[in-house]
Amino acid sequence: NYGIVVAAGKSTRVGPDVDKAFLSLGTKPVLAYALQAFERCPDIDAVVLVVRKDRLQAARGLVQMFGYAKVRKVVAGGNERQVSVQNGLDALSDEAQVVAVHDGARPCVTPELISETVKSAKRYGSGVAGVKVTDTIKSIKRGLTVSKTIDRTPLWAVQTPQTFRVAVLNKALQMVRRKHLLVTDEASAVELLGEEVHIVPASSANIKITTADDLMLAAALMRL
User: Is the pTM of this model over 0.85?
Assistant: First the structure.
């Protein structure tokens, strides 16, 4: 079972020229906490870390500094998430059967959640972390005018890890590349392939760092 931790985004919502995965959170960079969870997860054998090309040296230094022995390779990502994930897949060992893809900007992930997604992927072919939507959702057409209220009953907000059998995810990403499609997560690619995607109930605490406020929230959630 492999993990692919993706930290190759541009972080435009945090600020220009900011790499959120390397921002300080307590005593470590944001990325270090995600890697730590994979390091401690008994259901993960090895990890491939995907970062921006200009961060390769910094990422290798981080891995060495904190002693993340499961990180076998650090590779460069691409301009789109699906390219970065494909680069991670290309770096996997031929023995890899299940792969858990995780955002490096989700520092609050737990080894237990990673394990649950791996177990789901082994049983069903997929295991995607998600939480049921509890807020009332409005559809906005123009400006800030509400056009309608969406029934939230069937809605889930998906997170990462998104875990799949390697062969299925590889096939899905190759298909979207061949058709020149753009997807925002791995589950979308697998759905387009016609495969079922199974949700693994997660916690709303598994937040993604997208703004400066999220750093403070993550620190509070992790009691740093």
Answer: yes
